Amino acid sequence: MNITSSCNLPFPIKIFLNSRSNFLKKMARLRIKDILTTTPENQQITVKGWVRTFRNNSFIALNDGSTNNNLQVVIDFNNVPEETLKRITTGAAVQATGILIPSLGKGQSVEVKAESIEIIGDSDAEKYPLQPKKHSLEFLREIAHLRFRTNTFGAVFRVRNSLAFAVHKFFNEKGFLYIHTPIITSNDAEGAGEMFHVTNFDIANPPKDENGNVDYKQDFFGKATNLTVSGQLEGELAAMAFSDIYTFGPTFRAENSNTARHLAEFWMIEPEMAFCDLQDNMNMAEEMLQYVIRYALENNKEDIEFLSQRLEEEEKQKPQNERSEMTLLQKLQFCLDNKFERVTYTQAIEILRESNHNKKKKFQYLVNEWGVDLQSEHERYLVEKHFKKPVILIDYPKEIKAFYMRQNEDGKTVAAMDILFPGIGEIVGGSQREERLEKLETRMKEIGIPAEELDWYLDTRRFGSNPHAGFGLGFERLVLFVTGMTNIRDVIPFPRTPKNCEF
RNA sequence: UCCUCCUUAGCUCAGCCGGUUAGAGCACAUGACUGUUAAUCAUGGGGUCCCUGGUUCGAGCCCAGGAGGGGGAGCCA
Known about the structure:
The protein has 15 helices and 18 strands. By secondary structure, it is of the alpha+beta class.
């Protein structure tokens, strides 16, 4: 492909974008991932990357982020100026040109015998916080701008990238339309969580109305606005035209949640499907989860193997009874090989009530009657002890679920579904939506949601309403599961949590 | 927000019953060695013991308040 510049430049510019290899030729740089799988035939190559370790005044372990594996660059220190040798430090950016040969040492198949070495960017060894040793995840979280350069976070964020790409690939192949729902919203009637306010006011001195209340009519949008907690309602509008849509964007919750599973800013995937019931919804969610996990396993094998081994090492520190029965790799494979278990809320309550765990009063909250919300200890028991696989729980009591969920014929439950994963808990929350206008209006009235504010939403039930369904998938929780990490702050580049908004 | 544990060198951690000059490994600096794999060996520099106040002849250690972090819970994805 040739692109001729259409800008008003004094001379024509031609940019050639034939392929990735041309792009790299222009950069005169090969990616380490590609070099490591190249047959060494004494070809001359140039590599650029960051020094991980420098051993014996001769061996540079070079990494450019394309893979967790380092390329060994061998220099002859007798032919390199003392001044340059001293500048080959952990973290420094260097360029090496030399010939690719089969490695003379063990531990790697190829290496570069350097003919020239150049320091592109120095790294003061005394000040650079990363050392060639194990660091705690907590410490690395404080230097999140540098943790990308570690093995663990390198693997985590390459897997995250693959999962994000696989999500788009999956929906694209299914014929779904990717739609961008707004980040700033004015509706506060969803009740999905505490919201962050968006305002242009001088917060020390906002304008007041005649009653002494803050006068949002004078604010930027002429009304009170917030950051979105869900794109679902807008997603439903789009699904009522395009049939199958999905969103994948940032979501904000101002809840004071201090757990390893919550973020104030996270990414959520929300498909919405017209002419679709709860069964179709469950099938779609299961197929999608298996698709993206398979994609990551196939495309990030080395990264996931590394993370799996890392986890095994970590587990060795734990007492025997706390160790997991499967490795990360086995767990992921298990998810692909087995159907998710589907049970109703009512069945789940029965299982829990009859469990020895409940009878021996090992639950902090004992399960006695139908209608109570399940505690995370109950969910964990179902997933990790009883079924030992992902579980889809459906048909919850309407009292503990959102107003827009479709009311079942029994008058007590709604067509909700939660997908629970081992170690993570709820990874998907979804439902078939209430498409019958009168039922929806009655329910909104019952729980005190003003219909005027959601009139635009109710229009979908007035004009061509139909059974439809969708769900929300917490992207970071998916990344947690696939990487085997345990704290959600370690699977998003720059985590935002209560009292923490660095970088 | 609640319960619980933690905070000592750049990192990971030890520090006895409250006692005199606060230690180790790694990292870093200098030197030696030179096919190493978190190289090795020798020598050296490096401390607001989280902060504030209190008890005491004396506090890294005891008490109170605060900040930050981990684990668990609630809310949820």
